[in-house]
Specification:
two-stranded parallel sheet, 6 helices, 70% helix, elongated
Length: 151
Amino acid sequence: MHPMITRTFYLLTLLLICAISTTRAQMENCTLGVGGKDTQLITDVFQLNDAQLHQMELWIGELGMESKLIEDEIKELFDNHPQSTQEEMLTLAQKYKVLKDRLTHLSLNYDSRVLGLFNEKQYQRYVELCAEALRKPLTPILSSEETSDPE
């Protein structure tokens, strides 16, 4: 496949990832979707080096474990919370929203961590893609480790 077509495909796919979201908070923010099904796309579009890729994979594992704990809380909430009256259903909805917000915050936190691994060129590419998708870039959480420019 022609390199320009491949690059365009990756950029369009990343824009699609940034545009699709499940909550209002994610729609306003330009998310990477770390831990989602398109991790390879992040690696390819931003040309992550081996150290960046390794750290991202570690964080994906952590994110998965932390997300599972919250998802288990959600399952327990639905399994055990009374749901007979409208008031009970409203209470259930409020408790569910708190848990979903925790999942959203957790996801944004890990996206910001990965952004903290980016070098200036990678981050600039991210900012440009966010602008094209009309999304607000996340603030990176800077890592103590230095990253080198991708080749």
